[in-house]
Amino acid sequence: MDEASLLATLERWLLPHMTGVQSLRGLKSLNVNQALRGLLDYPMLQRLDSELPGHYTVPTGSRIAIRYHEDNPPALAVRMQEMFGEASTPTLAQGRVPLVLELLSPAQRPLQITRDLSAFWLGAYREVQKEMKGRYPKHVWPDDPRIRPNAAHEEVFVTCYTLPPGQIRR
């Protein structure tokens, strides 16, 4: 559907969602995305969700929200450790749209923004790894982040944060 068609049919798709809107604040809080999705049939919604999902599942199993913005490519803000095991940049729309990855420290601070994860792993990651090993020594910072650290490392990491101080799991 093009812009002219949407404008010509505003009453059909937008008006039902405007019930109770009486101010500019109410208008700004209107969920236009939901109204537009109402125009699509089930197969089209399935395809839309498949091509442009709302979340991406990272190698650790976490589902991270994808940010879509009109003027910028889709982006994923994720802790760097959650991307260990991902060899290349995740893509959308059957591989046509690469995600911009905002790789974060364990404290959720930005470390690197990249559109080419494999180049980052092979290049600038080494410097980030050195700095993070010093700053976060209890975290795993593998030499080859394209390969997911094994479960033994994950168990040590989880144990460090779940046992009371002074206790060691054997």
Summarize the structure.
This protein has 170 residues and is α+β, with helices and mostly antiparallel strands. The protein contains eight helices and seven strands; from the N terminus they run H-H-H-H-H-E-E-E-E-E-E-E-H-H-H.
Q: What features would you describe in this structure?
A:
- By secondary structure, this protein is α+β, with helices and mostly antiparallel strands.
- It has helices at residues 3-8, 10-13, 24-28, 32-37, 42-51, 117-122, 125-135, 151-162, and strands spanning 55-57, 63-69, 72-79, 91-92, 97-98, 100-104, 110-114.
- The protein is elongated, with a radius of gyration of 22 Å.
- GO terms for molecular function: helicase activity; hydrolase activity.
- It comes from Salmonella enterica subsp. arizonae.
- This is ATP-dependent helicase HrpB.
